[in-house]
Amino acid sequence: MKHLISMSDLTQEEIIALLDVATDLKEKRAKGKVTDLLKNKSIGMIFEKSSTRTRVSFEVAMNDLGGHALYLNPRDMQLGRGETIGDTAKVLSRYLYCIVARVYSHDTVTELALHSDVPVINALSDREHPCQILADLMTIREYKNRLKGLKFAWVGDGNNVCNSAILGCTLVGMEVAVACPPGYEPYPEIVKHAKRLGGKVTVTNSPAEAAKNADILYTDVWVSMGDEDERDKRLTDLAPYQINTKLVNQAKHDVIVMHCLPAHRGEEISAEVMDGPHSVVFDQAENRLHSQKALLLKLMAC
Ligand code: CP
Ligand code: NVA
């Protein structure tokens, strides 16, 4: 039994195998072919925070595969009245084949995994968002026909999505350059871990330096869920880190621009770039569905 808590829970071979299955499932869905490998199986999805893509894509994934997904709001569960995470995990393991959890604190998802007898998937914590990066690697491969050797540039807040991107891109042999203001760096232990894996990872304060020769330019919101109190400061500090046409012009001519969404046009990305020819953001969103299907099949051993 295996969980997906961090992108580093996967090996390069496992990531590539997941992307291959996801691509196959995407083609099958386009042809209207159904596969009900998860028939009669239910998963539970605990969401402490809002979600559009993650919730809907997991729910549709389970439905397409013949299974069922339950949306669980912690405020409606006994968790909200003090039942422990450990007891909750043990009880849910008796009903469900997998637990998906979107949480504020990364410790909550690790605690769930510690006590669960079924696989636990991190659907975003303050530290990582591995499901997003699986879909993103699938999208990059669709556009570039390869992963190894590409330059991935992250511009903006070195947040949870950035942490998973550093690990995921390193695992598949990409170079990673992060540009962020002082104080907004990705987790140092994640950068260290990626370097230990043999990754070429640089962290700079210069968006132009990161964007130079980049095959991929990636950004995310400046105010993540949980950071709302710091909104004004963040908008000021991160203002020079917008992905706009000027920055796109510093990258390779065929650069793809990525964003995990939701986006705020005029903040981390200009409207012109978000809705322009380099943007692949809606392919990323679609690929959440296909890559999570592959992940569910792998973790539920089908
Ligand atoms: N990208 C992403 O995880 O979107 P949601 O917050 O809508 O799930
Ligand atoms: N970094 C963002 C990602 C949303 C999908 C957040 O944590 O809110």
UniProtKB/TrEMBL annotation:
<feature type="binding site">
    <location>
        <begin position="260"/>
        <end position="261"/>
    </location>
    <ligand>
        <name>carbamoyl phosphate</name>
    </ligand>
</feature>
<dbReference type="InterPro" id="IPR006131">
    <property type="entry name" value="Asp_carbamoyltransf_Asp/Orn-bd"/>
</dbReference>
<feature type="binding site">
    <location>
        <position position="102"/>
    </location>
    <ligand>
        <name>carbamoyl phosphate</name>
    </ligand>
</feature>
<dbReference type="InterPro" id="IPR024904">
    <property type="entry name" value="OTCase_ArgI"/>
</dbReference>
<dbReference type="GO" id="GO:0005737">
    <property type="term" value="C:cytoplasm"/>
</dbReference>
<dbReference type="InterPro" id="IPR006132">
    <property type="entry name" value="Asp/Orn_carbamoyltranf_P-bd"/>
</dbReference>
<comment type="similarity">
    <text>Belongs to the aspartate/ornithine carbamoyltransferase superfamily. OTCase family.</text>
</comment>
<keyword id="KW-0808">Transferase</keyword>
<feature type="binding site">
    <location>
        <position position="78"/>
    </location>
    <ligand>
        <name>carbamoyl phosphate</name>
    </ligand>
</feature>
<dbReference type="InterPro" id="IPR036901">
    <property type="entry name" value="Asp/Orn_carbamoylTrfase_sf"/>
</dbReference>
<dbReference type="GO" id="GO:0019240">
    <property type="term" value="P:citrulline biosynthetic process"/>
</dbReference>
<keyword id="KW-0963">Cytoplasm</keyword>
<feature type="domain" description="Aspartate/ornithine carbamoyltransferase carbamoyl-P binding">
    <location>
        <begin position="2"/>
        <end position="142"/>
    </location>
</feature>
<feature type="binding site">
    <location>
        <position position="160"/>
    </location>
    <ligand>
        <name>L-ornithine</name>
    </ligand>
</feature>
<feature type="binding site">
    <location>
        <begin position="51"/>
        <end position="54"/>
    </location>
    <ligand>
        <name>carbamoyl phosphate</name>
    </ligand>
</feature>
<feature type="binding site">
    <location>
        <position position="288"/>
    </location>
    <ligand>
        <name>carbamoyl phosphate</name>
    </ligand>
</feature>
<feature type="binding site">
    <location>
        <position position="220"/>
    </location>
    <ligand>
        <name>L-ornithine</name>
    </ligand>
</feature>
<dbReference type="GO" id="GO:0042450">
    <property type="term" value="P:L-arginine biosynthetic process via ornithine"/>
</dbReference>
<dbReference type="Pfam" id="PF02729">
    <property type="entry name" value="OTCace_N"/>
</dbReference>
<feature type="binding site">
    <location>
        <begin position="129"/>
        <end position="132"/>
    </location>
    <ligand>
        <name>carbamoyl phosphate</name>
    </ligand>
</feature>
<feature type="binding site">
    <location>
        <begin position="224"/>
        <end position="225"/>
    </location>
    <ligand>
        <name>L-ornithine</name>
    </ligand>
</feature>
<dbReference type="Pfam" id="PF00185">
    <property type="entry name" value="OTCace"/>
</dbReference>
<feature type="domain" description="Aspartate/ornithine carbamoyltransferase Asp/Orn-binding">
    <location>
        <begin position="148"/>
        <end position="297"/>
    </location>
</feature>
<dbReference type="InterPro" id="IPR002292">
    <property type="entry name" value="Orn/put_carbamltrans"/>
</dbReference>
<dbReference type="GO" id="GO:0016597">
    <property type="term" value="F:amino acid binding"/>
</dbReference>
<dbReference type="GO" id="GO:0004585">
    <property type="term" value="F:ornithine carbamoyltransferase activity"/>
</dbReference>
<dbReference type="InterPro" id="IPR006130">
    <property type="entry name" value="Asp/Orn_carbamoylTrfase"/>
</dbReference>
<protein>
    <recommendedName>
        <fullName>Ornithine carbamoyltransferase</fullName>
        <ecNumber>2.1.3.3</ecNumber>
    </recommendedName>
</protein>
